[in-house]
Amino acid sequence: MHLGPNDSKRRYNGFVKQAKFRVGLIQMACSVDPNENLAKTEWRIREAAAKGAQIVCLQELFRSQYFCQAEQPATFDLAEPIPGPTTESLTRLAAELNVAIVGSVFERRMAGVFHNTVVVIDAGGALLGLYRKMHIPDDPRFYEKYYFTPGDLGFRCFDTRYARIAPLICWDQWFPEAARLAALGGAQILLYPTAIGFHHSDAAEAATQHNAWETIQRSHAIANGVYVAAVNRVGHEGPAGDGLEFWGGSFVSDPQGRVLAKAGEAEETLIVECDPRVMESVRRNWPFLRDRRIDAYSQIVNRVID
Questions:
Q1: Pick from 132, 129, 56, 134: nearest CA to 96
Q2: Is residue 205 flagged as an active site residue?
């Protein structure tokens, strides 16, 4: 776990903040124009702040349509350094609006090394750090291994002005190990910027896939006694009659797995209040972290157990 100079003191004194905090999730459709998407996102961040959001989370790769449906070398031109244009824009907004922002960037680290990265910007505009997507999928129309180098920063927690948060990204949401490590790092909420949908050939299974996606994340909330938020995109992207249909469904779950708010299949901004005292109560009654047998889990680091 990567900790800042003051993180240990904050962790072992208890939760970073005990006050309630409000998270805003921005679910939107994306055009083919990165500048149009950035302008639209800026407007929606302002809208979320005006409605009381203190921590605003954006969907995965919000500056473009989901380009991983095909392997195209020219697509790497969309990548940018950090700091860079997207980070600078989000930093200005965070400073102006006094909101923390969790934003997704296609990061150009150097020639030939690119990451799917989240930047965490605190209220006031300080760039707290990065999280680079750890689990990289490679499935039909989700050819992410072509574009992204696996993350090398580990699973990180960040102390924003309002709460201690752990950003994770899309495919990470299926892995209980990622959620557990973030919870052990003191996260009060797991935030998953997401781009997930279905191809028309899978339409019959779409409801089952959507239910599984939501269920696994609610299970992370229950098993770890934390809030969980996922923010997805909406709309069709790709050629007509082909491509992906993104199902939206952004939601926030409380530490008992109850869905506090859920978006539909259209553009929407959710504002949800989270209360760290609920975490305290749930963990006293469901002490899963207390009862972990850390002496018996050494084999978990093996690929398989022979």
A1: 56
A2: no
User: What's the CA angle centered on 76, arms 79 and 95, to 5 degrees?
Assistant: 10
Q: What is the mean pLDDT of residues 46-63?
A: 98
Q: For position 7, what pLDDT does the model report?
A: 44
Q: Is the bond preceding 83 in cis, omega lying within 30 degrees of 0?
A: yes
DSSP 8-state symbol, 69: G
Q: Which two tokens stand for residue 267?
A: 């553009």
Plot region of 186 (φ>0 → left; ψ -120 to 50 → alpha; else → beta) = left
Given 60, 144, 214, 268, the catalytic residue: 60
Are the CB atoms for 47 and 39 separated by under 8 Å?
no
Per the residue annotation, which of 40, 57, 107, 133 is the catalytic one?
Answer: 133
d(CA 269, CA 116): 23
Q: Which residues pair with 92 in a beta bridge?
A: none
DSSP letter, residue 272: E
Mark whether 170 is an active-site residue. Answer: yes
Residue 133 annotated in active site:
yes
Nearest residue to 183 (alpha-carbon basis) of 195, 201, 168: 168
Number of alpha carbons in the 13 Å side-chain half-sphere of residue 167: 34
* Segment 124-142 mean pLDDT: 97
For range 63-70, the mean pLDDT: 97
pLDDT in the model for residue 12: 37
**pLDDT at residue 303, rounded to an integer:** 96
Confidence of residue 11 (pLDDT cuts 50, 70, 90): very low
- Does the pTM exceed 0.90? yes
What residue type is assigned to position 280 of the chain? E
Percent of the chain with pLDDT over 90: 91
Catalytic option among 30, 57, 157, 170: 170
Total residues found in the chain within this entry: 306
Q: Tell me which architecture the domain covering 21-301 has in CATH.
A: 4-Layer Sandwich (3.60)
